[in-house]
Design a protein that fits this description.
With 152 residues, the protein is mainly beta. The protein has no helices and ten strands. Strands 4-1-6 form a three-stranded antiparallel β-sheet, with no helix packed on it. Strands 3-2-5 form a three-stranded antiparallel β-sheet, with no helix packed on it. It is globular.
């Protein structure tokens, strides 16, 4: 489960969240595939071309179906991480949109279980996991799959 918390107002002009309904039912992207980082890339996301991650290279999302979620600061939206989501570019000259995405999983889920070497590779970049911890927000962890810390 992903919870997206708006720190600032999020409008269509400042790149509010948009989702493609019902896309949580099908995998459209192979996120285990490595893609090259190219800082000059302008059609992708922060230097990554997501077109290279498509399972079916001919698949195109129907932008007519996209739902945009303008939000006021302090509002939240919850959705499954499998739902195709993102935002359009911020088209304003002097406004920013800032939010926080928080991911919740039950304690029986092994977070980063396929990374025994202690490194997470995502789109060709390597992120060390030695300082990674999950936060137990309620209940008990009876599985012990992940390094757990408690909120302060």
């Amino acid at each position: 489960m992903t919870v997206w918390f708006a720190f600032t107002e999020a409008t269509r002009e400042t790149a509010c969240l948009k989702v493609m309904p019902k896309t949580h039912r099908t995998w459209y992207f192979d996120e285990k595939r490595n893609i090259e980082f190219d800082p000059s890339q302008t059609s992708g996301f922060y230097g990554y071309d997501f077109e290279k991650l498509k399972i079916d290279p001919n698949w195109k999302p129907d932008e007519e179906q996209a739902l945009h979620f303008p939000m006021q600061a302090g509002q939240v939206i919850m959705f499954t991480s499998r739902l195709l989501h993102g935002s359009n570019p911020n088209t304003t000259k002097d406004k920013t949109r800032m939010g926080l995405a928080i991911r919740y999983v039950p304690t029986d889920v092994k977070v980063y279980s396929n990374h025994p070497e202690g490194k997470f590779t995502h789109f060709g970049e390597i992120f060390p996991l030695d300082k990674y911890n999950a936060v137990l927000v309620s209940g008990k962890d009876t599985y012990g799959h992940n390094r757990i810390t408690r909120p302060l």
